[in-house]
Amino acid sequence: MPDSTADQTVGIQRAIEETRITGTPLFLPPGRYLVRGLQLGSGTRIVGVAGATVLAGLGDSALAMARDARTVALEGLVFDGVARELGGAQALLDLADVDTVGITDCAIENSWADGLYLNGCGGRVSGTSISGALGAGMFTLDGRDLDISGNHVFDCGDNGIIVWQSEKRRDGALIANNRIERIHNRSGGDGPYGNGIAVFRGGNVTITGNH
Question: Taking CA 65 as the corner, what is the angle to CA 200 and CA 19, rounded to the nearest 5 degrees?
Answer without folding.
Answer: 135
